[in-house]
Design goal:
single chain, eight-stranded mixed sheet, three-stranded antiparallel sheet, 359 residues, TIM Barrel, alpha/beta
Length: 359
């Protein structure tokens, strides 16, 4: 547990958390909506600082990033807690457990201080001790060129990510966020020199979907994506298509047009849903739905559209937007560099500059 940076004091020992767009007003003894930012006597503490729940070396394509240091490994770090409540969450044991502990405590009429202790005890007993210095040591040991803050929502542990990247940047190691897009401007400012790339989940196309299935608001996500793009960070977008909920042609076209209006060079990852958490009665997304979304993305003028979670080499691979040459072949996380000059990021056949961060 370490004192947070992203907050300001309020009345009666309350604090206003500034990590995300909820701007939770947290009374003394309580945690914020995410479950891991605790007000203790008028100071805000991050319960998961130096205590991640998961640490892994992954292919960067797993995040997914296809145009940022492709075919490299990345150190991935995630903690407990989340500021979203997605009913289809694939990592709900990580993201939702602190909130589930709080709900059960309320049902049992436990005090705020007892509830916070239970959350802290759970995190302490189920997390690794992993200091920023240890993260740097591992990054250097495994010779990874980048570190990902991922698995749960990294916005809520921004100070921990910052302290890792302050060390990592001295060795030219890059930082990436895999996020749902609720970063506050305060967080984006704090991380501006340290996070190089973002993959943002644009989970749907309507406020109705966001409220019902993520318990958040779409306008804040769209604003965050626009803000990240304006800061000239490398940006990729991911959408999990859920049958009958966010996978209509109208929804798909809205997202494709939103991305195109920012830039046709932003890669868009369209992923297949599998039954999980609270949506176990919905079938997996058919491949034909992904292919149709892929075609709509191309129709709307996006240069780089990819399908995911269902093996399909043709729509996972990168082609030159100018001449159509196969540049990078992908089959799951197996990556074969074909006709791309990674040093210059250009198509070997026609010399077209391919958008991305290649070295």
């Amino acid at each position: 547990m370490k004192e947070a940076v992203l907050y300001k004091k309020s009345k009666n020992k309350a604090v206003i958390c500034q990590a995300c767009k909820w701007y939770c007003n947290i009374p003394n003894g309580f945690t914020g909506l995410c479950g891991i930012r605790l007000n203790k006597n008028g100071k805000l503490y991050l319960l998961t600082h130096s205590q991640p729940a998961i640490i892994a070396i992954d292919p960067i394509e797993k995040k997914p990033f296809f145009h940022f240091l492709p075919s490299t490994q990345i150190l991935s770090i995630g903690t407990y807690g989340c500021n979203f409540g997605c009913e289809f969450c694939q990592n709900w044991e990580l993201s939702q457990t602190p909130k589930l502990i709080r709900i059960k405590a309320l049902q049992n009429k436990l005090s705020p201080s007892k509830t916070s202790r239970l959350i802290k005890e759970f995190i302490d007993n189920n997390s690794y001790r992993y200091t920023p210095k240890k993260a740097l040591t591992d990054a250097l040991k495994y010779e990874v060129p980048s570190i990902a803050f991922t698995y749960n929502e990294p916005t809520i542990f921004a100070e921990y990510a910052l302290n890792i990247m302050k060390l990592a940047k001295k060795y030219n190691i890059r930082g990436v966020f895999v996020s749902s897009g609720y970063e506050s401007k305060e967080t984006l400012n704090l991380l501006d020199k340290y996070i190089d790339a973002y993959n943002i989940d644009l989970k749907g196309a309507t406020e109705k979907f966001y409220i019902r299935y993520t318990h958040t608001h779409i306008k804040h996500v769209l604003e965050t994506i626009e803000e990240i793009f304006s800061r000239k960070k490398w940006l990729e977008i991911t959408t999990l298509l859920i049958p009958n909920l966010n996978a209509s042609k109208k929804d798909i076209r809205f997202i494709a047009r939103f991305i195109k209006n920012l830039s046709p060079n932003i890669p868009w990852h369209i992923s297949s849903f599998y039954p999980h958490y609270k949506l176990r009665d919905i079938p997996p997304t058919p491949l034909k739905t992904l292919i149709k979304a892929y075609e709509i993305g191309k129709e709307e003028g996006l240069n780089y559209v990819y399908t995911g979670n269902i093996p399909n080499t043709d729509t996972e691979s990168t082609y030159c937007p100018k001449c159509g040459e196969l540049l990078i072949r992908r089959n799951g996380y197996n990556v074969e560099l074909k006709n791309i000059n990674l040093n210059k990021g250009i198509c070997k056949k026609c010399g077209f500059k391919i958008a991305g961060v290649w070295k």
